[in-house]
């Protein structure tokens, strides 16, 4: 079989809650942002629920009574808090155990890979570079260039950049936003159970499968 006839397989990953555990950094920055803008801080559980959304949508869900100026200020303060944590070396976004091995194995098996995330492009590139993962991904889609999940724009752009059709791709994520985005784009949705939304919620949002561990995910993708 020549390279030209090898079927393309595209795996698009969410970042926070799927590749890395960024919840601590997100909760800390959100609490600082809410305090700076004079809003009552949400609890950590509420913040984890909105990981994956673009910042304005996340703030509006956490503070539905806030006006447009309060939302704008809170978003700006969140970005400032996140940048400060990164600059000081306090930003913690550890990889989930087993993720590097999954990416290496998929690459060896001929998969093309990308990321679709609620992070900014700056934040995503810094995160991936810090973990030595940048070379794995041919397409990076972020919240600063697209509507928030679950709108399918990020995933549609990833398909276009990778020259893939929806039926050749899977979207891998930990939230119902990821699953709904995949369904809207006509892409198979695969949930992971180590993130921020439960398995039942992922299935309810359209997941064809929910992996319990990274090894489970790898076996599903390679053998399924």
| The number of domains | 2
Q: In percent terms, what proportion of residues is strand?
A: 5-15%
Order of helices and strands: EHHHHHEHEHEHEHEH
Q: Specify the number of helices.
A: 10
Helix/strand class: alpha/beta
Looking at this structure, what is the CATH superfamily of the largest domain? HAD superfamily/HAD-like
**Uncertain residue ranges:** 1-5
Largest sheet: 6 strands, parallel
From the N-terminal CA to the C-terminal CA, the straight-line distance is: 21 Å
| Helix-residue proportion | 40-55%
Strand order across the largest sheet = 3-2-1-4-5-6
Describe the protein in words.
The protein has 224 residues and is α/β, with parallel strands linked by helices. The protein has 2 domains: 149 residues, HAD superfamily/HAD-like (Rossmann fold), CATH 3.40.50; 66 residues, Putative phosphatase, domain 2 (DNA polymerase, domain 1). It contains 10 helices and 6 strands, in the order βαααααβαβαβαβαβα. The chain has a 6-stranded parallel sheet, with helices on both faces. Strand 2, helix 6 and strand 3 form a beta-alpha-beta unit. Helix 1 packs across helix 4, helix 3 packs across helix 4 and helix 5 runs parallel beside helix 10. The protein is globular. 46% of the residues are buried. The N terminus is likely disordered.
């Amino acid at each position: 079989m020549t390279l030209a006839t090898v079927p393309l397989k595209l795996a698009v990953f969410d970042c926070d809650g799927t590749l890395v555990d960024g919840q601590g950094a997100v909760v800390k920055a959100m609490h600082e942002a809410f305090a700076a803008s004079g809003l009552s801080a949400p609890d950590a559980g509420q913040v984890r629920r909105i990981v994956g959304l673009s910042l304005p949508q996340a703030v509006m869900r956490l503070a539905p009574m806030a006006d447009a100026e309060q939302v704008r200020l809170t978003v700006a303060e969140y970005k400032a808090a996140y940048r400060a944590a990164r600059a000081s070396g306090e930003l913690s976004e550890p990889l989930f155990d087993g993720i590097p091995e999954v990416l290496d194995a998929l690459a060896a098996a001929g998969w093309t890979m990308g990321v679709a995330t609620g992070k900014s492009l700056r934040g995503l590139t810094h995160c991936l570079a810090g973990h030595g993962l940048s070379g794995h991904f041919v397409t990076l889609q972020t919240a600063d260039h697209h509507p928030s999940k679950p709108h399918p724009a990020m995933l549609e752009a990833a398909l276009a950049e990778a020259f893939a059709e929806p039926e050749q791709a899977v979207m891998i994520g930990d939230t119902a936003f990821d699953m709904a985005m995949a369904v809207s784009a006509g892409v198979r949705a695969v949930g992971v159970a180590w993130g921020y939304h439960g398995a039942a919620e992922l299935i309810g949002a359209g997941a064809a499968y929910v992996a319990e561990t990274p090894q489970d995910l790898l076996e599903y993708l390679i053998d399924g």
